[in-house]
Structures are given as C-alpha cells and as structure tokens.
# Entry
Amino acid sequence: MFDYTPRIDALELGLLECTQRIESVEQALAEPSQPEVDPGGAAEMTMVDDQGNTNVMVRVPKFSYQDVNQSILDRTGVDLQLGTGTPTMFLKNGVEINEVYIAKYLASAGASGGCSVVGDAAPMTNVDYDTAKALCKNKGAGWHMMSIHEWAAVALWSFANGTEPRGNTDYGRSHESTIETAVRVDNKTPGDRSGTGATKTGTGPQAWSHDGTSLGIADLVGNVYEWLDQMSLIEGQITTTLDNDPDAAEQSWVKHSAFLDSQTASKSGSAGSPVLNSAISNRNGSVGDDTSNGGYATNEHFAKIAQSPTYQKMELLRRLVIESASQTNVKGSIYCRNYGARFPLRGGHWYIGSDAGLGALTLIYARSGAHSVFGFRPAFFA
# Structure
C-alpha cells in the first residue's frame, strides 16, 4: 500500500509557510509607512498641517561645519573658513535640533486661506514678506518660513557634495543647460519669451534639486525668488538672529558690525559693487526711505564683493553665505540698497539668467514688496 504521509507532511509545511508569509504581509500593511531615505540621510515625507493642507517635506539631518568645510576643501582646494560645530540651522537659542524639514516644493495655494507644499502646482506669488511669514506660521506649531540659516546650510551642503543645482532661469528652462526644462504655468514652450515663464513645482529634472535626486529639495535656484526669515538690512547694516529661532522678535535680532557699503554715493541706477564695511561711507538713498527710488549696488557674484580694510571678517556671515573667504563658492549675484529696511530674497527667478544661484541675494525690497517672481517656502522642526 502506498504511503501518502511524506506528501501530506510537505503540503502541511507549504501551507504553514504560506500562512506565515500572509501574516508577514498583513503585519507590514498594518504598520505605518516610513519616509524613503536616500543615501545621504535625507528623507521625503508628507505632513498635514493644522489647516488640513498637504505638505511634502524633505528631512535634513544634522551635520557639521567641519565636515562640510573639509569636503569643499577636498573637492575644490578652497578653505571657506566655516569653522567647526553644528550649523546654525540646527540650533535654536543654542539648543541643538537633530533634524529640520524643508518644503520639497515652493508654496502653492491651499485650503482655509493657507498654503500647500505639493508638486505640479503653480507657485504662490505676489506675496509680501509678512504675508509669506504668516502663511507659514498659520500652519501650526513648529512651522515657519524658511530662514537664512536653513537656506545657507542647505546651500553649503550642496556645494560640499558637488550637487549645486540649476533651475528655471530662462523662461522655463536652465540658461546653463537649455535641454533641462519644466512645465510652464502658462503651458507655453520653455524658452518662449512671451507670457509667464514660471514653472509648476517640481516638474524639472533631478539636476534642479539640492542633492541631485528625486528625493531632494526642488527649485531652490530660479523659478521665483524666495523670501527668507531672520535677516534684514537696516540702513545698510546686516541684522540677523544668531541661530535658527523663528520665534525671535525682530527687535531682538542682532545688528552686526557689518554694513553693505557702496563704491559711490549715486542716488540712481547702479552705484557699482557693494563693499563689506564697518560703516556706511556712501549711501545710495535717504535714511528711512524704504522705496526703490534711489540707487543700488550690485555684483554678478556675491563672493566677489570687496571688504574694506576696517571690516572685521565674521564667521557667522560666511556661514550664512553673505561674506565669503573665496570667490570659489555657490553661484549667485547680490543686489542691495543701503537705505531703509530691506528683507532678503534668495535663489533668483525665471528670467534672471546667470544672476541666479544658491548664493543669489537680493536686499533691495522693503517688507511690503510683492511681485510675480516673489514666492516662499515653509519649513518645520519640533
């Protein structure tokens, strides 16, 4: 008589293995999904704010200035003199923060009078500094407008890793690599110099993200200028928080012994390149005048501006990508008015060409300035 026992045993073993696999799948489905992590430690995740708006965020884990500086030195042979320790992005009143979440995309329109951070959307523009800041803060606890500290740390990290991004700097395409394009909000062909050349968030190539991957922060360079918090230029004097404190009142921001002086006292048009100085010797407008009626100073690369003999070099300003120890640094021009109160815009916009870059810094507009190329980006930390 034939013995069926071995076959029965095998079937029972197979059924047991199938049951175990099903239980494993069910367990995995029941567990909350984890954000995808790239090799550099960044991660993408979705957060829903207090207004019910979706925000796709990129986790940026803490790193050190010495590692960034050494990587730049190894890659370029240049010492940017960034010092050591934790970047100011990861410090609030001296207390360390392990990670900061930066909006993957520029802010776009949201529900309940708020804003969202989603891909394939038209950037929210024509917002002034205070409106942009309020839109970020209204998302709830921990939310704020991206700060000068966060922008600069991300810029230096990108430079250290050789992933300095390009972006929409020529009507929907990169002026450096015109084959790199994105979807224009007006649906016109990239490069067409009619219409509105802004592009939908995140529709460009990976070369337009801070780490050169699909997981990176998109559109930091070009598309629209971005308002940044925790810095101002008051009558030409550079004023910032000492570290990343979005709760700090403007009155408490530190007035540094650093001024953006001018080469001439011209009161109209370009007055030449700015000069880092210990005081203002050439003012291009009237004290207290927040308008754009006077002159301005500009240089094609922020890192090329001269430093007067009396200027005391400042490590913090090097860390904030305002001062530079070398002309080898992230790209981007500088524009400034050393009269009135000016607030920072960085990155460039869709028709600015070679003026764009992670180092691009515009300090010519008052807080009330609103324009079709002015946008913003939320950030979050607990």
Notes: Residues 227-369 form one domain. The mean pLDDT is 92. The radius of gyration is 24 Å. The first helix runs from residue 5 to 30.
